[in-house]
Amino acid sequence: MGLLDKIFRPDKAKESALVLKDAHNLFTTLTGYKPVFTTWRGEIYEAMIVRAAIDATARHISKLKFETYGTANPSLQSKLKLGPNQWQTWSQFLYRSASILLVFNNCVIVPVFDEYMRITGIFPVLPKKCEIVEYKGEPWLRYEFSNHQKGAVEFKKCAILTRHQMQNDFFGDSNAPLAETMKLLHIQNQGIEEAVKSTSTIRFIGQLSNFAKSEDIALERERFVENNLKGETGGFLLFPSTYKDIKQIDSKPYTIDADQMKLIYSNVYNYFGVNEDILQNKAIGDSWAAFYEGAVETYAIQASESLTKSLFSERERAQGSGVMLTANRLQYMSANDKLNIVTTLTDRGIMNRNEGRDVFNLSPIEGGDEFIIRGEYYNATEKVGGTNNAN
Question: Does the model's pTM come out above 0.90?
């Protein structure tokens, strides 16, 4: 039994097996586009600058905190607090799902079932092909992986994260707009490689007189190199009249200049919403806050909403159950900014001491969950002088 069997449980789910075998009609969409997602096998991920941009965003997303709320399905909530599934930690799950989303503009998160077909976790899959088919009037997601294994899950039990979604009702568009930039990156890398190679290639050509056989020419070349280009020659090169028409080869390989290279890199940065400070871990304060709001928070909101919808029924959601991915944004401020904000919010009873210690990555203390108000620093919920300070 492999990972696919653990996730989809085709041996236990009769309907899944029937969908794989009998469902041939694609689910009808409003746009007319076929509800099919086929992965382009990651060529953009092989470019160093693209992988660095994706990695920078995925690393920050992997630090999000997964939380559940509400009272529905307490068994599932308990399992998810320990991890998304039995193979990954939450940081690994978030990093991989974010990377898949950024590379392919689609990330499909499917439920993991136990032997009784109860959901026990979630897993981000990377199928070669994913299509929405209709079975008994309901949409199902059917997958095919690179090893030709297949699986099928009810559409409502899956979470689909997308980027650049416009033409298709369910899936994001391709990375075609990035193709020209990828070509320029490839050409530049080839140019640098050829420039390096040219430094060790032939620099002079000359004609030999009275040499007819190729083996004689080879021997003469070896003799000349041994006598004149190795060891001590005194810096003075002598050769007989055997050689004539000696010419220097002036190789001038072309490479893209710094301004052009900066423009290419800017195209990649703009496409993935990053900059050099983010890639080199220099962003703090307002710079990091802008990146968080543009890249990390958008993922957190979409993933929270999609997972809430796939893991909890409409009734359970209406009663207040759901999933939320959160981040302590204050941890990414400068030390002075942290101190000023924590002091201000703690003095006004908006933040307690343990929350303030968390900003500085300090462990909680006993009694630190109580709120205080600046003055005599008394408990905000105690009555002093006949009044309730919380009011």
Answer: no
